[in-house]
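Milestone M4 deliverable, item 7.
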Amino acid sequence: MINPRNVDHGNIKKVKISRKNVKKNRKDTKAKVDKHPLISYIYSMKEKTLTITSNNISQKQWSNLILELNLIKKAWASYATLNIKAPGIKKIIAHGTRTNFDKD
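Output delivered:
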């Protein structure tokens, strides 16, 4: 069996890359890619919808689901604008996210 370390691989050079060139090239690439981000790809995004239905969900489970979706909406705020539509959603979120429990 032939050991691959002992075989002549031809004229292979080891290239040494300095860190300065890597940082400079990275900055140049960013500048080239994001010159006009709003013009290049955001205008062509299509609105996407998601529908979740359930027939056998309790009121407590429904409230918890709405609150979880609201947390997802807040976490994704920097990436996308999410809209949640449901009956009674304002009351559920207001009651589920309040911190002052003295007025019960």
